[in-house]
Each structure stands twice: as structure tokens, then as C-alpha cells.
Design goal:
This protein has 3 helices and 3 strands. The longest helix is centred in the last third of the chain and has 14 residues, at about 55-69. It has a 3-stranded antiparallel beta sheet. Helix 1 crosses helix 2 (about 30-35). The chain is an alpha+beta fold. The mean pLDDT is about 90. The radius of gyration is 14 Å and the shape is globular. The protein has one domain: Orthogonal Bundle (Arc Repressor Mutant, subunit A), CATH 1.10.10. The chain has helices spanning about 15-25, 30-35, 55-69, and strands at about 15, 45, 50-55.
């Protein structure tokens, strides 16, 4: 069965800073600061205030942090 690209529109491919804050258990402000300075995972800026984090790269980074402990 061939899957059409339009069928994938409901798949979440990014996280917001608010979601990152919740996952990491930090404040939203710290999540924004972290996204502004990190080179550990892909951050997409849309305008001045809108930040999206590439889900797959963030999850790989988070997993590596868990493995390091």
C-alpha cells in the first residue's frame, strides 16, 4: 500500500519551547534560553519569538544524556 504525503499531516515533527520545558522539567524561560544557545539539537526559528525544536534530533540528544548517567 502506497502512503500519500498528505496522510502524514497530523504527525508532530517539532516541539515548542513549552513542550521542551515540560519534558525537561524546567521553566519556559529556561527552555527558550536553552534553545537560543544550544548546538546539541536542531532549533528552527520562525520570526523573533517563535521557536520550534526538531523532535527527532531533540529525542536523540535526550537519550544520549540519559545514557551518559
Amino acid at each position: 500500500m502506497k502512503m500519500e504525503c498528505s496522510e502524514n499531516t497530523n504527525i508532530q515533527r517539532t516541539y515548542t519551547a513549552e513542550q521542551i520545558a515540560q519534558i525537561l522539567g524546567i521553566s519556559v524561560r529556561k527552555a527558550y534560553d536553552f534553545c537560543a544557545t544550544t548546538k546539541e539539537f536542531k532549533v528552527i526559528r520562525i520570526g523573533k519569538r517563535c521557536v520550534r525544536v526538531h523532535k527527532e534530533s531533540f529525542e536523540k540528544w535526550l537519550e544520549s544524556q540519559c545514557d551518559a548517567q
